[in-house]
Structure formats: C-alpha cells, structure tokens
UniProtKB/TrEMBL annotation:
PANTHER family attached to this UniProt entry: ATP-DEPENDENT DNA HELICASE DING, DNA REPAIR DEAD HELICASE RAD3/XP-D SUBFAMILY MEMBER
The organism of origin for this protein: Parahaliea mediterranea
Reaction it catalyzes: ATP + H2O = ADP + phosphate + H(+)
Similarity comment: Belongs to the helicase family. DinG subfamily. Type 1 sub-subfamily.
Protein name listed in UniProt: ATP-dependent DNA helicase DinG
Length: 708
C-alpha cells in the first residue's frame, strides 16, 4: 500500500526536515527512502492477502548518510497509514536515549508529521517497590527473598544499601524520581541496584499490591498509545523470546527498525544460549531447600499446594545429588586436558556438537528432574498469584508477596537450567546446523568450576521462528552490513529471505581526502614476536607527535608489549585501554587535543566500533593487523567445523568476510564528518601478499592508497 497521497506525505516530510535543519539533501537518503517505502508497501492492508514477498529490507548506509532521518520520515507515516506501531531498536541504551531525546524531537519539530513516541526499557532498569519495601522493612541489605543467582550476585551490605534505598523511596514519594535507574541522580553500585529491582520471573504483575505505583508498568502504559516505540535490540529479542507482546506490542502489529542491525544475529544468539554451573547450582538447590523449610508454615496455610510443597524438598535434594553425579562424569571427561596458551581455564568443546555417550543419560535424568521441579514450582507460583487476589486467603499479603518473588526466582532458574540439560540429553547427531556445546573448568581444580554451555551457531533458525515471518515489516540498517561487498554473510547468519530488498548506499564523504597505507615491513603478524618488534620500531616513524591518533590491536598482549617497548616520550602521550574506563580514556584524549597537544589511544576491538572522534580528535588510525577472529571461540569453531563438513572452506566463507567487516569498521573511525581527512595505516602486509588480501582491500572505502 503506497498511495500517491502517502508518497507526497513522505516527500513533504523529508523536504521539511532538510529545510528546517538547514541540511543538504543527500542522494543516499533518497535511496533509503525509496527502498524502505517499497519494502513496507508489501504489508497487506485489512482484508488483503499476505504478500508473496516479505516486507523486509536490509540497507547498508555508509557513515554520514543520515539514515535516522531517512527511515523516520518514511516508516512513521507508513506505519500510521497501515495501523501498525513502529518499534525502533538501537544496539545500546545510550543510542536509544539519543534517539528519543534528540533525534525524534528534531524530526517531529521540523517534518510536519504528527506522532507520539515513548522509550521502552526492561524491568531491570526500574526499581521494584515491593523489593524496596522489603529491603527497608528488614532493616538490612537482604530481605528474606531467595536470590535468583546467589553464586553470581553477592548481597549488598546494609551500611551501603539502606541509605540509597531510603533516598529512593523518599524521591519516589515526593515525585522527584520516576524509578528509572538511568534517571537516578547518583551512581548506584550494581549489587545495590540488583537488590531493589526484579525480572519477569519474579514480577507478580497486575496482582502486585504496588501495581498502581509501579515504575515499570507506568512506563509500559505509555507504550500502549505511542506511534513510535524506542527500544534496544536486547529488549526486542527478549520480548520475542517470551512469545511477543509481553513487553512490546505483538510482532504482527509492529514494523521494526533495527539500527546498527549488523549486531542482530549475535544478539539473537546470546538470548537463546543456555548454561549451568554445576557446583553453584548445587549450592542454590541446597540453600533453597533450607529457606523453604523456614517458610513451610506460611505456604502450607494455602489450600491446594500442600502436596506440591511436600514434594519440593525431595525434588531439590535429589536434583542436587544428581548434579553431584554429573560433576563426576564431567570430571572424567577432563582427564588429560590441561590449560593452554596461559589461560587459567580449561575448555572442552565437543566436536560437531556431539555429546559424549557417558553424559547423555545423566543429562536426560537431570532434564526430567528439572522439568518436574519447574512444573511443581509453576503450580505453587500460580497458587500464590491466586492468593494475592483473594482477600480471604488468611495469609499476610506481605509474606505472600515475598514468597511469590522467591518462588518466581526459583522457577526462572529451574527453567533456564532445564534448557541446558535438555540440550545435553540428546546426542546432537543429525542437527543441521549443530549446536555448539562445551564445558569449561574455570578454576582448574576440585571440580567446582565446571560450567556447561550450549548455543546455536547461527541465528537464522531463531530469527525465522520469532521475527521474520511474524513481524508486519522489518528494516535492518547499519553502516557495516556487507562483507566483501556482499550481503551473503548477513543472510547466512540472520536467515533473512533472499526475497527481501537489499541495498548498499554509499557514504557522502569524500574518501579522496584520506589515505589508506600499508608500509614496508619484513614480517607479518604470523610471526608475533617479530611483528611486535616491527610495530615498536615503526610507530614513532608513522605517527605525528602533534596529532591525535588511534592505534587498534587485536591482542591485549601485543598492545601492552608495544606500549612497554616505546620510549618514555611516546608512553607519556599514549592512553591505554584498561588503565581507565573507555569513556574516561576518550575524555582525557579530547582534553589533550583541546589543549593543543598530541594524543594517542591504544585500544582493542571495543574502540574499533562505535567510537566517534570527529575532526582533529582523530587524524590517524593505525590497525595492527587484519582483525581475524580469535580462533578459540567455541561458537565460531563449531560453525567453521560445520562449514567444512558441508564441503565449504571455513576460512574463505567465514573468517575472511568477518575480518573484512571488522577492518571496514576499524577504518571507519577516521572520517566522521564531511570535512575530515587523515590516514589509515595497516601494519599487515598479508593484505598485499595473500590471495584473500585483494578481496579485503577492494571491500574498503575508496581511500587513496599508498601500498609499499
């Protein structure tokens, strides 16, 4: 549905924004507008048949295109015309807040479009009044609620926590705070905040006595009326994993925009991975049994759950004993395996995702036990929810609420542990693609550090189950989606249909203002020791001491060795990642540049993406080597194995495209505005000497080249 009236509305909105903000029209923006409009035109109107092709478009828009304006002035009026909600998902909370606090108000002010918008965050970003009340009622940092993961989150110290909790409650009462962590005026230690917030499994929702004052539900109410909902990738994926409609509107009623969309497949994988730490799960089961014994009188007063409560202690104890047996079996698998490459941990990855025969029956038994445990806890939770609504339950509401939080937390952990054991209860034979399965011994001794993990190796099946066929429409955009000038990498990892619309929009920047250089070197990174020595020698020659430079490494070890090898003068002007927070390193760098001094940042992968140092803040980007992935990732190793099994070449199909994408991202730190200029220097001659090098070189922006 793309009527002439709607086309005119989009054109008028774009023209108004350009004029109102005193911008120049960009060809790339017009290309994006056309692609998005034609893709969303595939969405059927009321009573129309489903489209033959999906309403999905994937757009790579080079830095400086102005993609936010392009997708906003197109998707907002089209969503309104179709009766859909627009959900814009950014990669981080910071980008999310920039979009809702700066970008959208600007677009609304200048475009002539009439729309409402709201910011969506997960429960963990909001204080839970019920937990806050209990913390203060107890007069100490621990409230009697069973911690969801006591092995991972220590309890807050009352001397530290109680003053903060009291101040929070006072601020809420005076209306000076909305319960959003990001709006609290001071810093809150993670452990203190964790004690005053909750998650989906522990929230009693509409049955909560504090529902009328609940910060999360108040914020959620705003979403029901907003034309545009601003979220982040994690929140959208969490909602989809819960079936859709749990936090955000149902996918069928949404048009999604995934900004920084190259992160989407990896974000999806993290939401569907599972793990179990054996020793700490045993401790959790044992501690839960003891705490439940103390609450037996309260819970036992409720009709209909006495039988469930009677079963619970035995279920907890037998599950703990079975986990001890699993520890012994896992310990046997590690015989003869030692830590390598100086790591403290020992990792055992199962080739082709195949679970050892000795572990399958143990996992099957544990899956059955945790399935029964989760079922029993679910019945108890339901009974507690009913009792919270029953004015004549005969049990103190405060105690009921406390136990609802505890049982909900237990149920959430039982279900996540169940998912892990179900994944290990099958051999893995015939899975296409296979799951990655591995076990890590974190502390190297005693069996206490065994951690079992399982993850899909591609997000394609997940997104095909939860996103692509359900959403009304999807727009994926980023400055870096293609690899080696092709969308094939993204299609493989995301599973997006080849019938979707794909478009690469060039950046408006003049890349002839910058140089891409490869200096003469008598070694390459394959010889790590000689390459590090060569960098120590070359850096003082290629860097201008009066300029701002960013030097990017793939290895922390090499970064520290190069820094140690420089003379005192260069070390004094160099800021090293890890010596301070990322934001503090950037602040000090800008401060030095503002004072007229040269400054150098030594950084790793997190400085190669998402760092914005425009103009004089970055004159030179030096990249130590082609950023091939670290080869010890179990997920990437399993993916490479699967590719090879199918007759492919994992290095050329996975490693080279991934490295090319990362190199483009790293090079993208140089030109951040139309007036920027400078140099990118790659200290890796493999881009000139290896057969894959030409493909990587040709995928870079059209810099002027100095290849020695």
């Amino acid at each position: 549905m793309l009527s002439e009236e709607l086309k005119d509305r989009i054109r008028a909105a774009y023209a108004a924004v350009i004029e109102g903000k005193s911008l120049s029209p960009r060809w790339g923006q017009r290309q994006m507008i056309a692609e998005i409009a034609n893709a969303l035109a595939r969405i059927p109107g009321p009573g129309e048949a489903p489209p033959a092709e999906p309403a999905v478009c994937v757009i790579e828009a080079g830095t400086g295109t102005g993609k936010t304006i392009a997708y906003a002035v197109t998707a907002i009026p089209m969503a309104q015309a179709l009766g859909k909600r627009l959900v814009v998902a950014t990669a981080t909370v910071a980008l999310q807040e920039q979009f809702v606090n700066k970008d959208l108000p600007d677009i609304k002010r200048h475009s002539g479009l009439d729309f409402s918008y709201a910011l969506a965050k997960g429960r963990r970003r909001y204080v839970c009044l019920s937990k806050l009340d209990r913390q203060l009622a107890q007069g100490q940092g621990e409230s009697g609620v069973l911690p969801l993961y006591p092995d991972e989150f220590e309890l807050p110290q009352s001397a530290e926590a109680l003053p903060i909790y009291t101040a929070m409650l006072d601020a809420l009462g005076r209306g000076e705070w909305d319960g959003d962590r990001d709006n609290w005026p001071g810093a809150v230690p993670e452990v203190v905040w964790f004690g005053a917030t909750t998650d989906h499994s522990q929230c009693s929702g509409r049955r909560c006595p504090n529902i009328a004052q609940c910060s999360f539900y108040r914020a959620r109410e705003e979403l029901t009326h907003a034309d545009v909902i601003v979220a982040n990738h994690d929140l959208v994926l969490a909602d989809l994993a819960l079936g859709g409609g749990a936090i955000l509107p149902e996918p069928e009623n949404c048009i999604y925009v995934f900004d920084e969309g190259h992160h989407l497949p990896d974000k999806a994988l993290s939401h569907f991975a599972s793990f179990c730490r054996l020793h700490t799960t045993i401790a959790w089961l044992q501690d839960s049994g003891k705490s439940l014994a103390q609450g037996a009188a309260t819970l036992g007063a409720l009709e209909g759950i006495r039988h469930c409560l009677k079963q619970l202690p035995e279920q907890l104890e037998s599950s703990a004993e079975s986990l001890k047996v699993a520890e012994q079996v896992v310990a046997g698998l590690f015989e003869g395996h030692e830590a390598r490459d100086g790591r403290d941990e020992v990792r055992l990855r199962f080739e082709h995702g195949l679970v050892p025969e000795s572990l399958i029956p143990v996992a099957g038994g544990l899956a059955g036990q945790f399935r029964s445990l989760a079922s029993n806890l679910s019945r108890i939770e339901s009974a507690l929810e009913d009792a919270l609504e029953d004015e004549h339950a005969g049990v103190d509401k405060g105690e009921l609420e406390t136990w609802h939080l505890s049982i909900g937390g237990m149920l959430g952990r039982a279900e996540s542990t169940l998912a892990l054991w179900e994944a290990y209860a099958v051999s893995g034979e015939g899975e296409q693609p296979p799951m990655a399965r591995w076990i890590t011994l974190l502390d190297g001794g005693g069996g206490h550090g065994f951690e079992l993990r399982c993850s899909p190796i591609l997000a394609a099946d997940l997104l095909n189950d939860y996103l692509w066929p359900r959403a009304a429409g999807v727009i994926v955009t980023s400055a870096t989606i293609t690899a080696l000038n092709s969308f094939e990498r993204f299609i493989l990892h995301s599973g997006v249909s080849r019938e979707a619309r794909f478009k690469a929009v060039a950046s408006p920047f003049d890349y002839s203002r910058a140089v891409f250089a490869v200096p003469k070197m008598d070694c390459d990174p394959g010889d790590a020791e000689r390459h590090t020595a060569a960098m120590i020698e070359l850096l003082p020659r290629v860097l201008d001491p009066g300029q701002a430079s960013l030097v990017l490494f793939s290895s922390r070890r090499q970064m520290l060795e190069v820094f140690a090898g420089l003379d005192d003068t260069w070390r004094e002007r160099t800021l090293v990642q890890g010596d301070a927070s990322k934001q503090e390193v950037l602040r000090r760098h800008r401060e030095r540049v503002d004072s007229g001094r040269g400054s150098v940042i030594f950084g790793l992968a997190s400085f190669a993406e998402g760092v914005d140092l425009p103009g004089r803040y970055c004159d030179h980007v030096v990249i130590a080597k082609i950023p091939f992935a670290v080869p010890d990732s179990p997920i990437e190793a399993s993916l490479a194995e699967w590719i090879e099994d199918r007759g492919g070449n994992a290095f050329m199909e996975i490693s080279v495209p991934d490295a090319a994408l990362r190199l483009v991202q790293a090079s993208g730190r140089l030109l951040r505005s139309e007036s920027d200029s400078g140099r990118v220097t790659l200290m890796d001659r493999r881009i000139l000497t290896r057969r894959y090098g030409r493909a990587i070189l040709d995928s870079l922006p059209p810099f002027r080249r100095e290849l020695q």
